[in-house]
Amino acid sequence: MKILCIIQARMGSERLPGKIMKMILDKPMITYTLDRTMTSKYIDEVVLATTENDCEDPMVEYLEANYYNVFRGDENNVLKRYVDTVNLYNGDIIIRITGDCPFIDPIIIDQVITYFLTNNFEFVRVDVPENFIRGFDVEVFTRQALEKVYDISRNIEGDSPYKEHVTLYMYKHPEEFIVGKFEGSEFYQKDYRLCVDTKEDFELVRLIYEHFKNKYVTSKEIVQFLDEHKEISQINQGIKQKHV
Asked: Which GO terms describe its cellular component (predicted)?
């Protein structure tokens, strides 16, 4: 059984273009997401899945030059991009992470994988934002569940949110899958925002990394830091997550 992590990312963000390659401590932000994920004890391989657009070239060239796995596929049909990546890298259990989560925590990833495997789920997601801080988002699903959703989507003409959002069909149709939610302890049930969609989000992330100067700072250390430095945690407090 191969556990494959696919991190989706692109340069063409609407609210903060090029955010993936913005520099933190002399390294592009995307490398923090990749490197932290790669320290998971259970993930066998990590791939960044991006689009075939020319605007991705600087990111792809940098990552390939630094020996990261990169797959390029469909821009709008992200579901197809995932299926094509899985077909190439042959994953059995798929981990989905987005590239705008530079504090993704391998300990949380491994806890979610364990929860998924011990309960024989087909799909599990971290319960963000209800019971977990946004930015520690992880989803785990079987290859079979992914292929089932893809087959359904192929009968939908034109654009569809199910093609753009890989797992949307799974959690909109829990009666068709064995679905679980991974909830955090009270420690993680706080109204912080640790993903990067805007300049305010990026500023908060940058300040945290500049404080710790450690690419592998833990989620607990980050949350404790925000608890003690409200002036930093409030930098992006007014930012609203885009709705699916």
From this structure: cytosol
- The amino acid that residue 43 corresponds to is I
DSSP secondary-structure letter at 243? P
Label residue 157 by pLDDT band (50, 70, 90): confident
Q: What is the pLDDT of residue 12?
A: 84
φ, ψ of residue 216 to 5 degrees: the values are: -110, 25
Q: How far is CA 175 from CA 81, 113, 118, 170, in A?
A: 25, 21, 20, 9
126: three-class secondary structure by DSSP: strand
Give the domains, in start order, of the chain with CATH numbers: 3-233 (3.90.550.10)
Task: Tell me the pTM.
Answer: 0.96
Q: Which residues contact 243 (CB under 8 A, 6 or more apart)?
A: none
Q: What percent of the chain has pLDDT over 70?
A: 99
| pLDDT tens digits, 20-34 | 999 999 999 999 999
- CA atoms of 60 and 237, how far apart (whole Å): 32
pLDDT tens-digit profile of 168-186? 999 899 999 999 999 989 9
* Rounded Cα gap, residues 209 and 161, in angstroms: 34
SS3 state at 114: helix
Higher pLDDT among residues 107 and 157, named by residue: 107
Please write down the HEC assignment for all residues of 181-237: EECCCHHHCCCCECCCCCHHHHHHHHHHHHHHCCCCCCHHHHHHHHHHCHHHHCCCC
Q: How many CB atoms lie within 10 A of CB 9?
A: 24
